[in-house]
Amino acid sequence: MLKPTSPESSPSRDHWWRSAAIYQLYVRSFADGNGDGIGDLAGARAHLPYLAELGVDAIWFNPWYPSPMSDAGYDIADYRGIDPVFGTLADADALISEAHAHGIRIIIDVVPNHGSDEHPWFTAALAAGPGSAARDRFWFRPGRGPGGDQPPNNWQSMFGGPAWTRITEPDGSPGEWYLHLFAPQQPDFNWANGGVREEFADVLRFWLDRGVDGIRVDSAPLLIKDPDLPDVSPGQLPGPAHPYIDRDDVHDIYRSWRAVTDEYPERVLIGEIWLPDAARLARYVNPGELHTVFNFPYLSCPWGAGALRRVIDQTLALAAPAGAPAIWVLSNHDVDRVVSRYGRADTAFDLERRRYFHGFPVDLQLGNRRAAAAALLTLALPGSVYIYQGEELGLWEVQDIPDDLRQDPMWLRTQGADPGRDGCRVPLPWSGTEPPFGFSPPGAAEPWLPQPKEWRDLTVEAESASADSMLRLYRDALRIRASEPALRDGPMAWLPAADDVLTFDRGTRVRCIANLSAGPVGLPPHTAVLLASGSLSGGLLPPDTSVWLRLE
Ligand code: NOJ
Ligand code: CA
Question: Taking the model in full, what pTM does it have?
Answer without folding.
Answer: 0.96
